[in-house]
Design brief:
Chain lengths: 237, 224
Amino acid sequence: MRFVKYGSLGIISFIVIAGLGIPLSPSPQSWLEFPVIPGLEDKARNLFFHVPMAWTSVLGFLVSTYFGFRYLRTKEIDYDFKSVSAAGLGLLFCILATVTGALWARFNWGSFWSWDPRQTSIFILLLIYGAYFALRSAIESDEKRASLSAVYSIIGGLTAPFFIFVMPRMMSGLHPGAKEDAGGKGPLFESKMLAPNMRVLFYLSLIGFTLLFVWMLQMRIRTARLEYESSRELSER
Amino acid sequence: MSAVSSTVALFSKDVRSELRTRYALNALLMFVVTAVATILFALRADQPSPTVLSGMYWVVVFFTAMSSLSRIFVSEEERGTTLTLQLVASPSTVYFGKLLFNTALTVSLTLAVTVLYTLVFSEFFIIQTPSIFFVTVFLGSLGFASAATIIAAIVAKANTRGTLYPVLSFPILIVLLMTVMNATARALEGEDFSEAMGDFQILVGYILVMTGGSFLLFDYVWKD
């Protein structure tokens, strides 16, 4: 618990300082220099924030669906707290990833939004999260809300492979990994243009954001349990 | 009764009660006419391209379906017949019976839109490759019904049914919508049947995943 809390805060502060502070150089000599990636330059620094945020939002969705599934099997309301807490965090990181992605698109592709397949996918993910919470607010009984929203998140998860894997490769787009990507290099973090120190920083950032997610998830689950108990005490009085 | 015959019995019960009131059919037909008339006003004298027309076609189908497909479960809740149905039929029978009814409704809906489209857009809406068009419409209807049926079952248990239904369905149906719009544009532009195979594979995959998933999850939605 303490490791998760200080670990995530420490790693993310380090990423912010190192990711924004390390200078670019056309021919990097030491570990404290990033290479200049043609077409990206300083904008490549967004890699340390945008991709981990997108990763965390998908992670939130998967965790939420998993706990929803566990709820359906066991009917223990505690799994629903876990499921909804993960979904809330997933929504938060999904918004962050959309905003950082749109900013990156503005300076690299020329406009904030161009219905690139990846942008379409994250838009659908946002819609699924929005619909999930709209559904939850429309049902009063705790048990019914838990099982119906779990079913909905699983149904939403079933369509995910189509828009994550099929759509971006079928349609043309600007995001790395799209069908008409020059030479089919794939996403930036898999490409050879990335220097080893950037790669280390990137994977460290993934770990940092995952730990941050775990820490926030634990806090939210505890809050949800306390809220549930206090509302039950009030109704029993 | 075997599973198939009880499914058919449930389907024919829904058809009979629909034919008695014609609630869904009438509303559906009027909705289609209204939507197509709105498109006509919006276009005025413009000459719509095949992409625009195929997009508009599925926009009409989507919103009409959203106005009528949820009735299949909502009407059971409103008439208080859910408990009876839970007693007399197994969940899989209920699911497939309702799926069959919704498929029939969506197929007749797409037929109505097609007929109306060929009448009012006689100069622009020319299906150059009928094979692509009819396979797309059929698979698209199946896909629509497979996703819309499980969402209808969820929505029937919630409070704000009317507005919630399109909100919940749209993110699930968007992959299907993009694919059928793409394939319909191909049919209008007169491409070869083989060029639409990729779209058909996605559609068949979608139908299988949705029907299988809904079938496994329906128990949890249906039983209180």
